[in-house]
Amino acid sequence: MFRVENLSKRYKTGDHALKNVSFSIDAGQVVGLIGPSGAGKSTLIRCVNRLVDPTEGSVFLNGRPIARSGSELRRARRRIGMIFQDYALVERLTVMENVLSGRLGYVSFWRSFARRFPQADVEKAFALLDRVSLSQHADKRADALSGGQRQRVGIARALEQDPELLLIDEPTASLDPKTSRQIMRLIVEICRERGLPAIINIHDVALARMFVDRIIGLRAGEIVFDGTPDQLDHAALTAIYGEEDWAVIHNENAEEIETTPHVVETDHAVAGMA
Amino acid sequence: MTSTTVSPRRWKRPPLLIQDPTLRLVIYGGFAVYLVLAVASIEVNWTRIFEGLERGVRFIQGFLVPDFLTRARDIQQGIIESLTMTLTSTVAGIILSVPIGIGAARNLAPAPVHAICRSIVALSRSFQEIIVAILCVAMFGFGPLAGFITLSFATIGFLAKLLAEAIEDIDEGQAEAIRSTGAGWWQIVNYGIQPQVMPRLIGLSLYRLDINFRESAVIGIVGAGGIGATLNTAMDRYEYDTAGAVLIIIILVVMATEYASGHVRKWVQ
């Protein structure tokens, strides 16, 4: 179980990015975090593993609080896998080195410096590359891969950590629509397989509805919506993003999930309302 | 709708630096006046220039018929000494520059370390090689040791500064991703930063090798050994043909390193 309590962040510039945000996530639940640019989505997930220092509040992962600094914080970070918008692979390292970098929190500096990772780590890395169908590219440099392939390396790196939570920042923002769906499908499948909770920052509302279990809407640093994708109606979208004709998103969404009839029905109803 | 009688809207690029037109005129005008006065204050002694022309012509003649043979042993010794001095000082300089450069990068080092490393860089950069060479010759005596120390010191100012800037310019996202895995500080440097700055570090080191060779010729003139000492001796003896030979060798070595470093830089990208 993952829990955030009264998280606040005020930047030195005076921006109040997060205002007293609290929520919790059950094991295996995939949460989509939506909201306009600047709503604090990115700040929120970075406050979880303290890439950004929150001004107030605390974060608990499986009962243990995330430490504020030092080696305790590093031990907490290695339990949290992170996947980034622009992949954030180290471009001049090989695919394998990038995946193995997920073990850095577990091995000594000299071991990682000499690239002599324990055999179990290497085997796990190969298994993960198989899982994301990239094992034949293991020794290629990361910048030789396409966008979708790079993001799959990013996923493998996060999983190499044996995480207890995944933080995912705009995983599809740099990808084409088809690759975006493949990546989202892969992420959700993996979370299901492992019972991993995940928070996904996402701009594409239609895509979020297709894949996530629960949606949290953030506006100006506050949670203004928390519910299932079905509950995200015209009123909710207006509360999150402001007044706009949301029918298009509903229609598009309705076409996309025609295989599950009951969802289509509710969606048409919402679209009709809009 | 707008009527056709309205005159077209005019546009002029807004002044970039100084908004006030009077102030602009005063500053630009003042600068122009100073420039004219400064140029006028340079004294030109035409008779001296005329006498010097003759010497210049002899020098160029010597350059056109370079004599590699008469002083072959001196030239050989000088060039070997210079190359040794260049290579050793560049390597020593790199070894010292890497930790100082890392310490001088604002995004990596804590404030006090940053301040110390920046001051070392500033100290090294504020003294021109010749001044350092004169000091080193006074401290360690004539010869290549003074040159070695001078060039190592000068390399720090150059390499550590540019390495620090390269580190400050990295893609933070890659380092952030490594930090998020729970990596320690040294691991972040090794995985998140080193791969990003390595090509630049190699390129800069080769460039510095080239500069150190040229500088070794200059500081030799003030007694720090190497090919510069040979060149100085030749000039003192009015052996312009030997001096010409030395200059040609310097040019060839510089061109060779330039060519080689271009290839290496392309290869490490």
UniProtKB/TrEMBL annotation, chain A:
Query: Which keywords belong to this entry?
Result: ATP-binding, Cell membrane, Membrane, Nucleotide-binding, Translocase, Transport
Q: Name one GO molecular function term.
A: ABC-type phosphonate transporter activity
Tell me a GO cellular component: membrane
Signal peptide annotation: none
ABC transporter domain span: 2-245
The UniProt entry, under NCBIfam families, shows: ABC_phnC
The protein depicted here goes by the name Phosphonates import ATP-binding protein PhnC
Q: Which organism is it from?
A: Agaricicola taiwanensis
UniProtKB/TrEMBL annotation, chain B:
Give a yes or no for keyword Membrane in this entry: yes
Q: What is this protein called?
A: Phosphonate ABC transporter, permease protein PhnE
Mind telling me which InterPro entries this protein's record contains?
MetI-like, MetI-like_sf, PhnE/PtxC
Check the record and name the SUPFAM superfamilies matching this protein.
MetI-like
What's the superkingdom here?
Bacteria
**Gene Ontology molecular function terms on file:** ABC-type phosphonate transporter activity
Q: By its UniProt entry, which PROSITE patterns does this protein fall under?
A: ABC_TM1
The protein's UniProt keywords, in alphabetical order, are: Cell membrane, Membrane, Transmembrane, Transmembrane helix, Transport
What compartments host this protein? Cell membrane
Looking up Pfam families in the UniProt record yields: BPD_transp_1
Residue ranges annotated as transmembrane are 21-42, 91-109, 130-154, 242-260
Membrane topology, from the record = Multi-pass membrane protein
- Give a Gene Ontology cellular component term annotated to this protein: plasma membrane
Query: Where does the ABC transmembrane type-1 domain start and stop, copy by copy?
Result: 79-261
Family per similarity comment: Belongs to the binding-protein-dependent transport system permease family.
